[in-house]
Design brief:
Layout (H helix, E strand, L loop, with lengths): L2 E7 L3 E9 L5 E10 L6 E6 L4 E6 L8 H16 L5 E6 L10 E2 L2 H7 L10 H14 L5 E5 L9 H4 L5 H6 L8 H14 L7 E7 L3 E7 L2 E5 L20 H9 L5 H10 L2 H6 L5 H6 L3 H25 L4 E5 H6 L1 H10 L9 H5 L14 E3 L4 H25 L2
Parallel strand pairs: 1-6, 6-8, 9-12, 12-13
Antiparallel strand pairs: 1-2, 2-3, 3-4, 4-5, 7-8, 9-10, 10-11
Length: 404
C-alpha cells in the first residue's frame, strides 16, 4: 500500500497524518497522530482511521530533545510497528515569500531560500524546516514536498499586495502575503460539494483558531486577506495582537527600550487574547471565565472579526456567503452567534437551533447572506499537493524516457 506522510511541525510538537493512495487515485486517511511535549515531557499519540488508539507512549526528556528527534521517533514507530513506509512526505511551511507560489520539491537550495523567511514567521518557519532538513540528510532519495500557507494568496492584485512604501521594498519582498492559505484552498475545493450554490460566488471565510484570519474568495480564488507581511496582522489571535499602528512599535523601542528580540517575543507571545485578558490565550477558557477581562477579550475578538468582514465585503464589492472554519469557527456556537449579530447589517440572520447543533448551514432560510460551518483539512490539502507533484515528476520522467 502506497502512503503519503504529512507533517506539521511546531516548536514543541509535531503533528502527522498518513494517507493511503487507493486504486482509484483517492487519498484515505489511515493514521492521525502527534508528538508533543518535545524537550520537556515527550508523548507520542496516534489514532487509526476508525479513531481507535494505536499508540500512547511517553519518553524520557533527553530522548526527544528537538523536532527532528520527535519526527524520527514517530517515523520509526510507523515503519516498525505499522509497517508504513511512505513514498513521499508533505510538509506545511508557513512562509514561502515571493519565491514560491505553488508547492515545490524540497532540495538543499529550497531549504536555503526558505531560511530567509524565518524572521517573518519565527513561531513557525524554523520548526517547519527542521524535519525537512533532517530527512534530506538521512534519506535524500525520499521525495519531500513543501506546501506553503502563502501560496494560495499569490494571485492577489497589485493593489491588494502593495503597502504604501517605496517600490524598492516591494521588489525586495516587503508585501502583503496572507496566510492560512492551505486552509482556504481546502475550503474553496470543498464548497462545490458542500454548498454548490455559493462555490463560485463572493464568499468570506473566517479561519478562527489560536491563529486567526479571514479571506475573501471569488470564483474559488483568494482576492484579499486580513494577514499581510507576517502572521502578526489582521485579527487578534491567541498571543498575537493583530492589526497594529506601526507607531506602537516605535514607541516600544524608543520609550520602553525593547530590543528587536524582546519586541519579537512580546508581539508573538504576550499579546492578543492573552495580553488583553491577562488570563489565557485559549478562547474556551475565556468563555468559561467570569472575570470581566476575559469577557472583554472575547468581545474584542468578535468586534474585530466584524470590522474585517466589512473590509473584505468592500474588496469583493458585496457578499454572497459567509463561512466559519478552524477550531473556534467550527466548535463555538456562542462565538459564531456573536459574530453573526455584528454582521446583521450585511443581511446575516442566524438559525439558533442549527447553530447550536453545529449544522453545515446555520443561517435562517430568509437570511440574505447564508452562513456555513465547513471543517477545514489542511493535511488532506498537503497530501493532495504532494501526490500531484509526484505524479508530475513521474510524467516528466516518462516523457523524457520516450524522447529519442
Amino acid at each position: 500500500m502506497d502512503t503519503i506522510l504529512v507533517t506539521n511541525a511546531g516548536s514543541s510538537s509535531v503533528k502527522f497524518q498518513v494517507f493511503a493512495l487507493e486504486p482509484n487515485g483517492a487519498l484515505k486517511r489511515e493514521v492521525r497522530g502527534q508528538v508533543d511535549g518535545i524537550g520537556s515531557r515527550p508523548r507520542l499519540r496516534a489514532t487509526g482511521a476508525n479513531r481507535a488508539v494505536l499508540v500512547d507512549r511517553t519518553y524520557e526528556n533527553d530522548k526527544l530533545r528537538d523536532v527532528a528527534a520527535a519526527l524520527a521517533t514517530a517515523g520509526a514507530w510507523l515503519r516498525e510497528e505499522l509497517r508504513i513506509d511512505p513514498i513521499a512526505i508533505g510538509h506545511r511551511v508557513v512562509h514561502g515569500g515571493p519565491d514560491y507560489s505553488r508547492p515545490v520539491r524540497v532540495t538543499a537550495s529550497v531549504l536555503h531560500r526558505l531560511e530567509r523567511y524565518i524572521p517573518l514567521a519565527p513561531l513557525h518557519q524554523p520548526y517547519n524546516l527542521a524535519p525537512m532538513r533532517s530527512i534530506l540528510a538521512s534519506m535524500p532519495s525520499l521525495p519531500q514536498v513543501a506546501c506553503f500557507d502563502t501560496a494560495f494568496h499569490r494571485g492577489h492584485s497589485a493593489l491588494a499586495d502593495h503597502y504604501a512604501l517605496p517600490v524598492s521594498l516591494y521588489e525586495e519582498g516587503v508585501r502583503r502575503y496572507g496566510f492560512h492559505g492551505l486552509s482556504y484552498e481546502y475550503i474553496a475545493s470543498a464548497l462545490p460539494q458542500v454548498a454548490p450554490e455559493i462555490a463560485a460566488k463572493r464568499v468570506i471565510v473566517a479561519h478562527l483558531g489560536s491563529g486567526a484570519s479571514m479571506c475573501a474568495l471569488e470564483h474559488g480564488r483568494s482576492v484579499e486577506s486580513t494577514l499581510g507581511f507576517t502572521a502578526l496582522d489582521g485579527l487578534p489571535m491567541g498571543t498575537r495582537p493583530g492589526q497594529l499602528d506601526p507607531g506602537v512599535v516605535l514607541y516600544l523601542i524608543s520609550e520602553k527600550g525593547m530590543s528587536p528580540a524582546q519586541l519579537q517575543d512580546f508581539l508573538y507571545r504576550e499579546c492578543g487574547l492573552k495580553g488583553l485578558s491577562g488570563i489565557s490565550n485559549d478562547m474556551r477558557e475565556l468563555q468559561e471565565n467570569s472575570d470581566p477581562r476575559a469577557a472583554f477579550a472575547v468581545d474584542y475578538f468578535v468586534y474585530r472579526v466584524g470590522l474585517n468582514a466589512g473590509m473584505l465585503a468592500a474588496a469583493l464589492q458585496g457578499v454572497d456567503a459567509f463561512v466559519f472554519t478552524a477550531g473556534i469557527g467550527e466548535n463555538s456556537p456562542k462565538i459564531r452567534a456573536a459574530i453573526a449579530s455584528r454582521l446583521s447589517w450585511l443581511g446575516v440572520s442566524l438559525d439558533a437551533a442549527a447553530n447550536a447543533d453545529n449544522r453545515t448551514k446555520i443561517s435562517r432560510s430568509d437570511s440574505r447572506v447564508p452562513v456555513y460551518v465547513v471543517p477545514t483539512d489542511e493535511e488532506l490539502m498537503i497530501a493532495r499537493h504532494t501526490l500531484s507533484l509526484l505524479q508530475e515528476g513521474s510524467t516528466a520522467q516518462s516523457s523524457t524516457a520516450r524522447t529519442p
